[in-house]
Structure formats: structure tokens, C-alpha cells
Amino acid sequence: MLRLLAQRGSWAALQAAAGPALPRALQLAKRLTASWAGPFGDSSPQRNQPENQTQSEKAAVSHFVSEAMEMLDMSPGLQRAILNPDRSLSVELMVPMDNGGVEIIMAHRVQHNNSRGPYKGGFKYHPEADLADTEA
């Protein structure tokens, strides 16, 4: 992606926006993606599948975010603030169906951190969605 930005003449804009943090960000990205080889040696999203295939999305995301925060030497307090949501909300939505019945659907909303302004985003509702995956 960075190569594409450089080819399109946006490299200078990227450097200006990132400032002195760009080399460190590139080094971090390289270290994080070094172990992301897919089954055919490519950089597919199937990064290092855990031995326990039932691992939740939250655990997978927390693992990679924790690695990145350790590489950035973040304090333990800041790490906890980033990994743990401020609040989680789960509701049951009663949806009237065309056949006259009512379907109950679970919906979840997770609010992570409002230190940079109001929370953004909406509810996640899907038959297979659970709160842990929404927190990820």
C-alpha cells in the first residue's frame, strides 16, 4: 500500500502527515506482518491460526493489539484502557415477521473509549453474533 502511495505521488503527503513517527510505524507494521503468512506463504488474512480454532474474535484481536502495544512500549494502564471497553449493551429486539409471528434477535453495542469525542458506531445484530465478538 505504501508503495502504491509513493507511485501516485502521495508519499510526500504521507510523510508530512505522519512526521517522525513514520519510520517507527513502518518498522512496527513490518514486525507485526512478518508472521502473517497464509497457507501458501502469502499475506492472506489467515494469520497464524491458533491451535484452538474456537478462539473468539476478541481474543484474536486482543493478541495482535497487545503485541503492537508492547512494541510501542505503552504503559500497562493505557493498554488496559485500549483493550477493555467502557460499556457493553445487549438487547433483545422483537421483530414482527410477515407470517404474523415475532422473531427475537439479540443485538449488541460496545463503546470502547470516548476520550477523543463521542462514541461512534451502531448495533451489531446477527444470529451468530455474540458480545465477545462485538467487543473485538
UniProtKB/TrEMBL annotation:
Family matches, as Gene3D superfamilies: Leucine Dehydrogenase, chain A, domain 1
GO biological process: L-glutamate catabolic process
GO cellular component: mitochondrion
Annotated ranges, domain Glutamate/phenylalanine/leucine/valine/L-tryptophan dehydrogenase dimerisation: 85-135
Keyword match Oxidoreductase: yes
Keywords: Oxidoreductase
InterPro entries with a match to the protein in the record: Aminoacid_DH-like_N_sf, Glu/Leu/Phe/Val/Trp_DH_dimer
Family according to the record: Belongs to the Glu/Leu/Phe/Val dehydrogenases family.
Region (Disordered): 37-59
Domain of life: Eukaryota
Protein name (database record): Glutamate dehydrogenase A
Membrane-spanning ranges: none
